[in-house]
Write a structure and sequence with these properties.
The protein is globular, with a radius of gyration of 18 Å. It starts with 8 loop residues before the first strand and ends with a helix. It has about 290 residues and is an alpha/beta fold. α4 links the parallel β8 and β9.
Length: about 290
Amino acid sequence: MTSHRPGGSVALGQHEISRIGYGAMQLEHVDSAAAGVVLRRAMELGINHLDTASFYGHTTVNAHIRTALSPYPNDLVIVSKVGARRVDAPVPLALAQHPADLRRQVHLDLESLGLDQVPVVNLRRADQGPGLIAEGDQIVPLDDQLAELIALRHEGLIGAIGLSNVSTEQLEQALPAGIVCVQNAYSVLDRSSEDQLKLCAANGIAWIPYFPLGSAFDQIPSPAEHPVVQRIAARLGATPAAVCLAWILAHDEHTALIPGTRRVAHLEDNLRAADVHVDTAALIELDTLS
């Protein structure tokens, strides 16, 4: 193991995490042996921040993490997400927003990961896209959800509370609960959550964007394909993807990344973003793209 943290470190509640972590969702599509190779390599490279959820497969990814890494390193911070459940249907996810649902998902994480406490649990709201949007009885007041997560924290089953897919107003509403991180869609081309990032920075909350390189959703463009990004990448001798990730790290010191992959080579490529120096001229150009 190495003490070097890719991209440096940032505070996640009481923890210090590598600014480049690892999002484990794609490990749902590989077997335990292949997943183990990637996870162990991530640890060797200094990553100590893993992002997962019980609904990544039917706890498949959690099982891969436990098989590969348990007993866990003392400094490993496993972050999970609640608010959805896995179903056997053409769309494999269904919302599970009620407080009792959130509690069940935390227990699923504890059992499948082999933990006594999940260090951080993100509440994934569903008031807006991308992805599933709450309808009918899945429209649940944020305060009710926070009360359940606070109870789980008081019981010691979770260590800290994060939020995902929230508005500025919801983040402000949740601040008294002691939020440690926010995951929203955000990239050099999608700055719609900039106000939330500023609010996080003002309150010492880690900003951990998803879709930093775009996504399969049509409305979310791929910043690595933007001609300005490609031109800057060529000048800096880096890949366009690495420039996009490096911009997020350079843009604000409270940011961290959780790029995912199922291949070691791609994992190592993602970590090269830590070595890309986005100079002032590049920052000015990239800041004006959104």
